[in-house]
Amino acid sequence: MFDSTFSHASAEPLSRAASDQIAIRLMHDVNVILHLNPDCKNIKLVSDASANPQEYKVEDSLAFVPKKLWSGGVWYTAFFKPVEDGCDIMIQAPGGFTSTNKWRLIRKPDGTRTVSITSDAKCSKTFSIFVKRFLESSHGQMQRAFNERVEAIARPGMPRRRSSMPGSFRSARQMVVV
Questions:
Q1: Domain coordinates of the chain in residue numbers?
Q2: pLDDT value of residue 33
Q3: DSSP characters over 23-43
Q4: Counting beta carbons within 10 angstroms of the beta carbon of residue 54, is it exposed (0 to 12), middle (13 to 18) or buried (19 or more)?
Q5: What is the pTM of this model?
Q6: In CATH, which superfamily holds the domain spanning 3-155?
Q7: In 14-149, where do the E strands start and end?
Q8: What residues contact residue 64 under an 8 Å CB cut-off, 6+ apart?
Q9: How buried is residue 157: exposed, middle or buried, by Cβ count under 10 Å (0-12/13-18/19+)?
Q10: Is the dihedral of CA 129, 104, 100, 29 positive or negative?
């Protein structure tokens, strides 16, 4: 009655430099996947390392929630399970927030590959608008970060392109030769 449930799915092309094996290996690494979220501060294994799924305590800064409603971070429980074509992550957080997130490497008949994230979440109606917005924006951000990690492994020694570096954009005035 006081909860809101919603889903969000997204897919981004996998870097052409990446092999399927590199992508799956990274999806099976809990530290890589959980730290793709820039708000993830800390991860601690709680269960036995051989457990499937493995249980972790995760510290998150909750940057998407206005400080008036919640200041500081939060610790939550994450259950991480590698599967053949990706991983499943179930999250249980304070305030009744739960989510199931499925990361998959999708191979299409035409030979293209995508990284897909499907999330089903439930939370209090109070926080639902913030969680929905965060979920929608974070998928693309995490998929791009995943592709950067894949490329760093596939092309060692190649510098990452960073369009946000100072001076990386020239104004039209600078490009005109006088």
A1: 3-155
A2: 95
A3: HHHHHT-HHHHHHTSTTEEEE
A4: middle
A5: 0.78
A6: START domain (3.30.530.20)
A7: 40-45, 54-60, 74-83, 86-93, 97-107, 113-124
A8: 39, 130, 131, 133, 134
A9: exposed
A10: negative
Contact 57, 81 (CB under 8 A): no
CA torsion through residues 5, 59, 88, 31, sign: positive
Q: Who's near 146: CB < 8 A, 6+ residues apart?
A: 26, 32, 36, 115
Residue with tokens 């760093």: 152
Distance of CA 101 to the CA centre of its chain: 9
Question: In whole angstroms, what is the distance from residue 138 CA to residue 113 CA?
Answer: 20
Taking 50 as the pLDDT cut, the residues of the chain under it are: 64, 162-178
Contacts of 1 (CB under 8 A, 6+ apart): none
Q: Which residues contact 171 (CB under 8 A, 6 or more apart)?
A: none
Largest alpha-carbon pair distance within the chain? 68
- If phi > 0 it is left, if psi is from -120 to 50 it is alpha, else beta; for residue 86 that is left
Q: What is the pLDDT of residues 55-89, one digit of tens each?
A: 999 998 765 455 555 556 788 999 999 999 999 99
Three-class secondary structure of residue 175 per DSSP: helix
Residues 6+ apart with CB under 8 A from 77: 46, 55, 56, 57, 58, 91, 92, 93
